[in-house]
């Protein structure tokens, strides 16, 4: 759906815009990440509505996660999640070995402290998509070496 | 064609409800409200038996003396309910399906509208137009 280059440019401009328009400081940094996360949330909600329009009803949670890993990820990032793991108790780990939004940053550990703001939007995207499908969750991201990235999804039981 | 069209949110409150102008609009509200139980029943049956329907379209929910009630549930658990007049026997299942499809398409557009707040009642004119077109075709 989203074309490769425009989406990446827009995303990095978005981060620039949000960090520049806020004053510097550590507390501000946390607020910027929240802002990006909320934006992602709204986009995820809309996007999943469109993507699941012609699919059959999901059987269970795992079915939903598979959809996120395959169709949803392909739509946004042009590739599937490389590895999905779960403990069958509401925790899912989605591993992407070459995460597209990090692929333009130099590989390795040089820009590691910049990573959170490049992942916040995506965390929100996943959380928004899941919430619209009726699954409440907390999504966090983790990077140890640059373009690889892990997203942890914790399902909130009602 | 349809005498009442309703959109119900995940949490079972109405996002949109419109019926043909008659004296007893309340009756349609009751009809739609009653249908939610049937919808619930149909969804919870999914996954229990093999070969069950996993389609979004739920088919005829229940007939009453004067009306037939059809249901549809999106993957985001938003319910669409269409009430048609029983006397309208020419109406085929396929036509109902296509009505729901149109409704769903339009609803998706509403959801993707950045000015719309998910969970708010639907105020889109485009959606209104689609619904009106379905109600007008009364024979």
TrEMBL record, chain A:
<keyword id="KW-0524">Neurogenesis</keyword>
<dbReference type="GO" id="GO:0030008">
    <property type="term" value="C:TRAPP complex"/>
</dbReference>
<keyword id="KW-0256">Endoplasmic reticulum</keyword>
<dbReference type="GO" id="GO:0006888">
    <property type="term" value="P:endoplasmic reticulum to Golgi vesicle-mediated transport"/>
</dbReference>
<dbReference type="GO" id="GO:0005802">
    <property type="term" value="C:trans-Golgi network"/>
</dbReference>
<comment type="similarity">
    <text>Belongs to the TRAPP small subunits family. BET3 subfamily.</text>
</comment>
<dbReference type="GO" id="GO:0005783">
    <property type="term" value="C:endoplasmic reticulum"/>
</dbReference>
<comment type="function">
    <text>Component of a transport protein particle (TRAPP) complex that may function in specific stages of inter-organelle traffic. Specifically involved in the early development of neural circuitry, likely by controlling the frequency and amplitude of intracellular calcium transients implicated in the regulation of neuron differentiation and survival.</text>
</comment>
<keyword id="KW-0333">Golgi apparatus</keyword>
<dbReference type="InterPro" id="IPR037992">
    <property type="entry name" value="TRAPPC6/Trs33"/>
</dbReference>
<dbReference type="Pfam" id="PF04051">
    <property type="entry name" value="TRAPP"/>
</dbReference>
<dbReference type="GO" id="GO:0005801">
    <property type="term" value="C:cis-Golgi network"/>
</dbReference>
<dbReference type="GO" id="GO:0007399">
    <property type="term" value="P:nervous system development"/>
</dbReference>
<protein>
    <recommendedName>
        <fullName>Trafficking protein particle complex subunit 6B</fullName>
    </recommendedName>
</protein>
<dbReference type="InterPro" id="IPR007194">
    <property type="entry name" value="TRAPP_component"/>
</dbReference>
Automatic annotation (TrEMBL), chain B:
<dbReference type="GO" id="GO:0005737">
    <property type="term" value="C:cytoplasm"/>
</dbReference>
<dbReference type="Pfam" id="PF04628">
    <property type="entry name" value="Sedlin_N"/>
</dbReference>
<dbReference type="GO" id="GO:0006888">
    <property type="term" value="P:endoplasmic reticulum to Golgi vesicle-mediated transport"/>
</dbReference>
<protein>
    <submittedName>
        <fullName>Trafficking particle complex subunit 2</fullName>
    </submittedName>
</protein>
<dbReference type="InterPro" id="IPR044760">
    <property type="entry name" value="TRAPPC2L"/>
</dbReference>
<dbReference type="InterPro" id="IPR006722">
    <property type="entry name" value="Sedlin"/>
</dbReference>
<comment type="similarity">
    <text>Belongs to the TRAPP small subunits family. Sedlin subfamily.</text>
</comment>
């Amino acid at each position: 759906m989203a074309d490769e280059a425009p989406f990446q440019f827009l995303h990095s401009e978005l981060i620039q815009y949000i960090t520049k328009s806020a004053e510097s400081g550590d507390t501000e940094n946390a607020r910027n990440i929240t802002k990006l996360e909320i934006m992602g949330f709204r986009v995820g909600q809309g996007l999943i509505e469109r993507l699941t329009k012609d699919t059959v009803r999901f059987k269970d949670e795992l079915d939903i996660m598979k959809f996120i890993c395959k169709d949803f990820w392909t739509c946004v990032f042009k590739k599937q999640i490389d590895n999905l793991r779960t403990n069958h108790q509401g925790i899912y780990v989605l591993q992407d070995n070459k995460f597209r939004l990090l692929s333009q940053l130099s590989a390795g550990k040089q820009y590691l402290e910049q990573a959170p703001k490049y992942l916040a939007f995506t965390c929100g995207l996943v959380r928004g998509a899941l919430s619209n499908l009726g699954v409440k969750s907390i999504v966090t991201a983790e990077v140890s070496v640059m373009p690889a990235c892990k997203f942890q999804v914790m399902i909130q039981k009602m | 064609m349809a005498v009442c069209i309703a959109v119900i949110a995940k949490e079972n409150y109405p996002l949109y409800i419109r019926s043909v102008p008659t004296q007893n609009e309340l009756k349609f509200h009751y009809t739609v409200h009653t249908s939610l139980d049937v919808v619930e029943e149909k969804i919870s049956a999914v996954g229990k038996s093999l070969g069950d329907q996993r389609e979004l379209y739920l088919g005829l929910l229940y007939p009453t003396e004067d009306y037939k009630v059809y249901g549809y549930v999106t993957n985001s658990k938003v319910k669409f309910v269409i009430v048609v007049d029983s006397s309208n026997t020419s109406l085929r299942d396929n036509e109902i399906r296509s009505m729901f499809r149109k409704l769903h398409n339009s609803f998706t557009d509403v959801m993707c509208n950045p000015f719309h707040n998910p969970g708010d009642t639907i105020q889109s004119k485009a959606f209104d137009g689609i619904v009106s077109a379905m109600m007008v075709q009364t024979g």
